[in-house]
Amino acid sequence: MIAPCCNGNFFLQGRAILSNRIPIRVQGKTIGAVAIFQDKTEVTRLAQELTGVQAFVDALRVQAHEYSNKLHTIAGLIQLDQGMKALDYIFELSEEQAEVSGLVARQIHDDSLAGLLLGKRSRCKELNIQLEFDPDNLFLNYPEGTTIHDFVIICGNLIDNSIDALVTTDQDTKQIFFSMKEGEELLTIEIKDNGDGIRETVKRKIFQRGFSTKVLEGRGIGLFLVKAIVDRVDGAINIESEIGRGTVFTLQIPMKRKEGGLYEAAK
């Protein structure tokens, strides 16, 4: 007989460890125990990935950094007695932000997802990357079996993947194109970049958990999560890539689940 588990936290070599201990009892006597140890930092990171919390934190950080730079520019112009130039700069920023924000808000009828996309656009501006939104974008309803967290993970990770591809490229103009269109049967998401492309050997492994072309700790989970969500709701992912010309990720998610699909089987 296995009794209820006991949970605990402790530190080992400076790392927070989450421990689950499950006593094993036979005829009322404890004869042993099963102990499971997990790095709490890793557990927390995975939880943030799954809920999309990290994506919103990143978006807020970028917005704060961007507005700090703009305020410094305005303050500098005022100190130089260039009050009219400061006003012109403020009006120019306001018009540009209102135009883009208004377009995204009209197209994407979910404030959380719209906010994420605008945050990614600001991040791209920091990196001298142009993130363009399809003028015909349309997202009104969630496909059956999906939530906002699913789309934060999907859109956030795919845009980040394109950003990573462009940061190290020598292209004079770095561009990402984002399209999200809802139809009667399918929601189609397309993210295209003009990076260096993906080799065939990498394409075959790109959705594997833990696989990454980067050496940084914590990489290799984003595209794995994207694939897991799409598979769960019976969707499909297609990658078209050409070395030296860029990559296109196309996702198609059915608005309604098919009878007998993975989602239906799990219900």
Can you put this structure into words, describing what you see?
- The chain has about 270 residues and is α+β, with helices and mostly antiparallel strands.
- The protein folds into 2 domains: about 15-40, no CATH class; about 50-265, 2-Layer Sandwich (Heat Shock Protein 90), CATH 3.30.565.
- It is built from 8 helices and 8 strands.
- Strands 4-5-6-8-7 form a 5-stranded mixed beta sheet, with helices on one face. It has a 3-stranded antiparallel beta sheet with strand order 1-2-3.
- Helix 2 (about 55-80) crosses helix 4.
- The longest helix is centred in the first third of the chain and has 27 residues, at about 55-80.
- The radius of gyration is 23 Å and the shape is globular.
- The two termini are about 30 Å apart.
- Shape annotation: globular
Number of helices: 8
Q: In CATH, what is the homologous superfamily of the largest domain?
A: Histidine kinase-like ATPase, C-terminal domain
Number of strands: 8
| Spatial separation of the terminal alpha carbons | 30 Å
User: Which strand order does the major sheet show?
Assistant: 4-5-6-8-7
The residue-averaged pLDDT reads 78
CATH-derived topology of the largest domain:
Heat Shock Protein 90
